[in-house]
């Protein structure tokens, strides 16, 4: 339901609403195929809480409406239903935010799939969320779109405090480039470049990428001390913070279409 303008406020534009879909999977039904993760579910929850705080502040949005799916709830059907939900709810005046954290896989044809809780490597087309499905949903969203993805192939521990989400067999570069094409129009923040691993931090109980995002959205990315966090300032903060948290072994990336300028996405809390 849209807020009504008060008399005399006809020349004051209404703030946009923000719609958020966050999916994070730490526990997999077929964990003999995909090893369980540690904090992907918490990453989704923490990211959603950080963005919902934006709806409670007197900031950029009327409100933030969130749908959060974790572990057993984050099935292929529910994630696809969530993409349908955010596509249909977001008007041209609104902002859509999608956050995925978990495993990613390429099939034998090198097609990318985000792996829901019920993913089965033997049947990726029917149990995974394919790049084609993500791209179709992204292309159909009328408003601005921010897409955050932390997904790579299953791997082994990198030590006592740093755990790998991946063994670098999935290259996220092409996925990022396609989503940020002028046709799709998404602004994408990805946890790694190319085939780097994406790390979970036992000391922080978060992935390094999500830890940096939440800090940035809560105000650390207000680099110019103007009270707002822009796309560019969040990129700068997350890049430096992730590299610091992982001792330079992980580098996140951000890409946006050429037609979309830098703009504020959060206010300092």
Task: Tell me about the largest β-sheet.
Answer: 8 strands, mixed
Over all CA atoms, what is the radius of gyration? 18 Å
Which runs of at least 5 residues are low in confidence (pLDDT < 50)? 1-10, 153-170
CATH top level class name: Alpha Beta
In helices, the fraction of residues equals: 25-40%
Number of domain modules: 1
The CATH architecture assignment turns out to be 3-Layer(aba) Sandwich
Global outline: globular
What is the rounded distance between the termini? Answer: 26 Å
Query: Total number of β-strand segments?
Result: 13
The helix-strand sequence is: EHEHEEHEHEEHEEEHEHEE
User: What is the CATH topology assignment?
Assistant: Rossmann fold
Helix vs. strand class: alpha/beta
